[in-house]
Amino acid sequence: MGDLGSGATSIVKLGESKETKSKVAIKCITEATHPSFRSNTTKVIGDILKACSHPNIATLVDLFEEKEGLFVVLELYAGPLTKVLQQSQNLVWTEKDACRIITQILETTQYIHSLGIIHGDLTTGNILSADANATQIKISGFTKAQKEETESDIFCEPYFKAPELLEGKKHGKSVDLWAIGCMSFLLLSGKYPFADSNLMRLNANIKNGKFEFAESDWAKVDPKAKEFVKGLLNVNPQERTTMEKALQDPWITGGGSGEVLTAFAVNLKGNKFTH
């Protein structure tokens, strides 16, 4: 019926349920989009998706594998959160809004981790908005999920890839915390913390943890929010903020201020997302 978007390893198409005639989203993963997709079998992915039952996780409708590739059928939502916000008319985004969404991402990821699963792809394309008002998120994109403590590569978006993944080191749940740090930076400023058209420079900046809180983008953001982000973007996974500490962080528990983040709306409109 048409493409809804594409990412590092998949294409998402609009479809229709034969039974209910309702619209669905179909994530198509083929050898063309993800050369090693068969290393994660349909059964493994299916088991992970079926094990996840949470109000902030995208509902699985069906999952099947054909000669062409793997197809994950999900309920249709408003779209990737960043795209929904980007397309919003007269967007008014506050620090409280950002804190609310980040808290939802943290709590949902904590649930995923409690099942012994690393999501591995918490990027703009997999954090969906359940509705046009961006009040609730739905996490999807479990096609690259893994059991914890592994050396398998994760084919996530380069802007969200943790340093230990770039270095081919054994990694655990903390790669998801790094990705949440990148997403938090984006939801507070409208920009990626690490952004460079040159992949070598981008990877070098990630490995060195080289990013900055530009005054023009962060002037209205609570300093506690910056400390929260810095803790998640620690290049050393052993020193990176844990899930428990993130949820107990003063900025998270305080709920964020009602300050309107005008720079966020301006920056977001000018950002080109891959989803």
Explain this structure to me?
- This is Protein kinase domain-containing protein.
- Pfam families: Pkinase (PF00069).
- The protein is an alpha+beta fold and 275 residues long.
- It is built from 11 helices and 10 strands.
- It has 2 domains: 2-75, Phosphorylase Kinase, domain 1; 79-270, Transferase(Phosphotransferase), domain 1, CATH 1.10.510.
- It is 36% helix and 16% strand.
- It has a 5-stranded antiparallel β-sheet with strand order 1-2-3-5-4, with helices on one face.
- Helix 5 packs antiparallel against helix 8.
- The longest helix is centred in the middle third of the chain and has 20 residues, at 95-114.
Compact description:
This protein is an alpha+beta fold and 275 residues long.
Which keywords apply here?
single chain, alpha+beta, Phosphorylase Kinase, domain 1, Transferase(Phosphotransferase), domain 1, 2 domains, 5-stranded antiparallel β-sheet, 3-stranded antiparallel β-sheet, 10 strands, 36% helix, Prot_kinase_dom, nucleotide-binding, Protein kinase domain-containing protein, Protein_kinase_ATP_BS, ATP binding
Task: Write the SSE topology.
Elements (H helix, E strand, L loop, with lengths): L2 E4 L4 E6 L6 E8 L11 H10 L8 E7 L2 E7 L3 E2 H6 L8 H20 L2 E2 L8 E3 L7 E3 L6 E2 L15 H4 L7 H16 L9 H10 L6 H4 L4 H10 L10 H5 L2 H5 L7 H8 L6
Antiparallel strand pairs: 1-2, 2-3, 3-5, 4-5, 6-8, 7-10, 8-9
Give the N-terminus to C-terminus distance in angstroms.
Answer: 18 Å
Say which CATH homologous superfamily of the largest domain is assigned.
Answer: Transferase(Phosphotransferase) domain 1
Q: How many beta-strand runs?
A: 10
Point out poorly predicted stretches: none
- What is the H/E order? EEEHEEEHHEEEEHHHHHHHH
Assign an overall shape: globular
Structural class: alpha+beta
**Fraction in beta strands:** 15-25%
The major β-sheet equals: 5 strands, antiparallel
Q: Kindly state the mean pLDDT as a whole number? A: 86
Report the C-alpha radius of gyration, rounded.
18 Å
The level 1 CATH classification of the largest domain is Mainly Alpha
Domain count: 2
What's the helix count?
11
Indicate the CATH topology of the largest domain. Answer: Transferase(Phosphotransferase), domain 1
| Neighbour order of strands in the largest sheet | 1-2-3-5-4
The residue fraction in helices comes out at 25-40%
The CATH architecture designation of the largest domain is Orthogonal Bundle
